[in-house]
Write a structure and sequence with these properties.
The structure holds two protein chains of two kinds.
Chain A: E1 3-6, E2 9-12, E3 18-24, E4 32-37, E5 44-48, E6 52-53, E7 61-66, E8 70-75, E9 85-91, E10 98-100, E11 104-108
Parallel strand pairs in A: 2-11
Antiparallel strand pairs in A: 1-3, 3-8, 4-5, 4-9, 5-6, 7-8, 9-10, 9-11
Chain B: E1 3-7, E2 10-12, E3 18-25, E4 34-39, E5 45-51, E6 58-60, E7 68-73, E8 78-83, E9 92-98, E10 107-108, E11 112-116
The chains are: A mainly beta, B mainly beta.
Amino acid sequence: IVLTQSPATLSLSPGERATLSCRASQSVGIHLAWYQHKRGQAPRVLIYDGSTRATGIPARFSGSGSGGTDFTLTINSLEPEDFAVYYCQLRDSWPPRLTFGGGTKVEIK
Amino acid sequence: EVQLVESGGGLVQPGGSLRLSCAASGFTLSNYWMSWVRQGPGKGLEWVANIKQDGGEKYYVDSVEGRFTISRDNAKNSLYLQMSSLRVEDTAVYYCARGPIGNSVDQWGQGTLVTVSS
């Protein structure tokens, strides 16, 4: 299964809404996660199972999906610390191999 | 507090070997699958390998199969990645990660840089 993220880069201002897309080449149910990655830091899980926020993740981050192939990460009212690269990820049923999308960079406009 | 601290990265020539370590603390390592994920220069995240709680099952991305070996020592709270026959394209920051738990990994280390170059 291939995960395709779009756009590659999103240029926005603080306070704006970011909408990131992740499309799977075949249905993956709800089994998609989203991560935030800042340069020089450890990646951080934001969303798992398509729409469940991980512990400590602010409510401005939300995940949704439809048809098991199209998923969206929405960041409402971007904060300065939200400018980063975001990855979607799925796990094969068995064996439990992980696949990451190519990433979307959210940069300051 | 959960912590994962990688070590062992460095500069190695093509064809060489390197062993990465990941020291785990703040949780019981033996309860979790563990994974290695890498990020090459200018590239995205790529899963490398994972290992079951007791070490009895191991899986690898095709590009490292037969060259890399993932292992663990739960008594020492440590995860390892033995890398051999290294290629220039293996150059990356290597992250140790807890999971998969369900369908995702929930804790990551800061990473260790491996550079394969002559």
